[in-house]
Amino acid sequence: MLVTEELSYRHSDSFGLSSIDLHIKQGEIVSLIGPNGSGKSTFLRLISRLITPGSGEVLLNGERLKRMKSQEVARNLAMLPQMQDHQLDVTVGELVEFGRHPHRTAYGKLSQEDQEIIDWAIEVTNLGAYKNRLLHSLSGGERQRAWIAMAIAQRPKILLLDEPTTYLDISHQLEVMELVAELNESYGMTIVMVLHDINQAASYSDRMIVLKDGRVRFDGIPQCVLCKDMFHSIFEIDAEIFMKNGKCFFTPSKLRKGECHESRGRKETAN
Amino acid sequence: MIAVHERTKKDQHPLARKRLIVLVTSGSLLMVAAIASLMIGPVSFSLQEIWNGIFQSTDTMERRIVWELRFPRVLVGMIVGTSLAASGAILQGIMRNPLADPGIIGVSSGAGLAATTIMIIFPAYIMFLPLAAFLGAFVTALVIYALSWRGGASPLRIILVGVAINAVIGAFMSALMLLYSDRVQSVLPWLAGGIAGVGWVQFEMIIYYVIAALVLAIFSIKHIRILRLGDEVAKLLGHNVERSRFFLIVLSTLLAGLAVSVSGLIGFVGLVVPHIMRSIVGGDYRFLLPASALGGGLLVVVADTIARSAFNPIELPVGILLSFLGGPFFLYLIQKRRDSFAGN
């Protein structure tokens, strides 16, 4: 469904992505994890064409992404960027309507189909009661759901989410994750998301990809990726790994001292 | 913000009532102000006399004053106010910054410099003044856009570059004044910004362009609404952000240049009117743009009527009055509605 071939991007000497080769399959929920500055968001921004790769290719359904028209891309791929404008004074209904933009021609009115999809997006995200509420009068979780509703009104085959749960309290976080799971399960949407909470990533994903310093370091099912070695080499911590009902989760135990940690300190001063 | 506290029925937009009220009120006030402006002046007329002045082509005093002097002046005032406010509203929308205004980012002064050059150095070509003003505005806008370009022109860069360009143009203007200090006298009223002495000639000179620009402005609403979601979201929706923004800048320049060409440098209309309207009708350009256009026309017509009649026998240029009142009023708005600056 989505393939990257030797995808590279250089932002500065100390930050960039180098030769990322990934194959995202249809219907997968993929989480990208990794320390700050590892290139997770950059990867999402590359495959959504917000930034242009230095070299390499992204193929969407076998077609070269850079050759596709923006509207065509937007009909297949939707993304929710990290920070949204909290002051934007549009209602939920109006925001979701913008999701139909890539499907509409010039100045036509909303078609019956557009209207049905808008209603569907609002219903799936459980925002029926808020259709005429202004976005900035909603709580953080509701607002995030409204942005997701806009993205899914594009009827994308693949949905990219950049830290969809950051700044939300725990119940709103779960609400968003449940919504993501439902979109995947009931509508077959492929999901690629950047998450900070590794336990959430492990419990909701089919596949986890761990990035560090712009490279893919681990890639596999959560049960394989969540291991002491990964926490040690990527996050420089010791961790206890547990299994329950077939899902794995971890608790951090202590920060590793030593070479790894020192080298990270050096890098930070270099920045 | 007001909107949060608004209690409304669930099935309609929280600002729907306000929007309707504002559009209807400013529309009707504009009509009333226009009629009042025809009545008020050194010689006052009754409604009946104005009617006669406009519709009877016999050569009476009413005819000469109402038809030849006041009527075209009211119309030009309306057009100038509408163009300036629409221009400011469009700029603020695409820059997502309430400080964007044709005056502040240098587009007006570009028009001013070109026009002043014609008036001072090439007075023989005075008939090209509107063209020069528009070209001055247009070239300035292009320069600002080109200098802001860095793989895309971000709104903040455009504004900063605009402020710098504005300063440079100001220097040129001062130099011109000093070098030709003997001819400055004729330019001063124009620099202050006013519509004294405009007639049907000026009206006919710009009306078709203004109508064309306003029609384009109506079609631009959809683009402004998408851009207001932010560059990234607009791009993700498959919208060509840079192309839209470029055409909208050209459109806004055209509107400002047209206004400047007949009225000189009238400031603050493009800044204050959309700002006030936004605080009432919200940031949806389907309502904000028409409300600003009506409000701009209203403000200039009212201010011009006051400027030419309140200080009898002196006739004040409307630009001076507007800056004089507009500056402090804007400061007041900033103090009062500090929070509303954040995201508009």
TrEMBL record, chain A:
GO terms for molecular function: ATP binding; ATP hydrolysis activity. Keywords: ATP-binding, Cell membrane, Ion transport, Iron, Iron transport, Membrane, Nucleotide-binding, Transport. CDD domains: ABC_Iron-Siderophores_B12_Hemin. It is a peripheral membrane protein. One of its GO terms (biological process) is iron ion transport. InterPro entries: AAA+_ATPase (IPR003593), ABC_transporter-like_ATP-bd (IPR003439), ABC_transporter-like_CS (IPR017871), P-loop_NTPase (IPR027417), Siderophore_ABC-ATPase (IPR051535). This is Iron complex transport system ATP-binding protein. It comes from Sporosarcina newyorkensis.
TrEMBL record, chain B:
InterPro entries: ABC_BtuC-like (IPR037294), ABC_transptr_permease_BtuC (IPR000522). Gene3D superfamilies: ABC transporter involved in vitamin B12 uptake, BtuC. It comes from the Bacteria. GO terms for molecular function: transmembrane transporter activity. Signal peptide: none annotated. It is found in: Cell membrane. The keyword Nucleotidyltransferase does not apply. One of its GO terms (biological process) is siderophore-iron import into cell. One of its GO terms (cellular component) is plasma membrane. It is a multi-pass membrane protein. SUPFAM superfamilies: ABC transporter involved in vitamin B12 uptake, BtuC (SSF81345). Keywords: Cell membrane, Membrane, Transmembrane, Transmembrane helix, Transport. The chain crosses the membrane at residues 20-40, 71-91, 103-122, 128-147, 159-180, 200-219, 246-273, 285-307, 314-334. Belongs to the binding-protein-dependent transport system permease family. FecCD subfamily. This is Iron complex transport system permease protein. It comes from Sporosarcina newyorkensis.
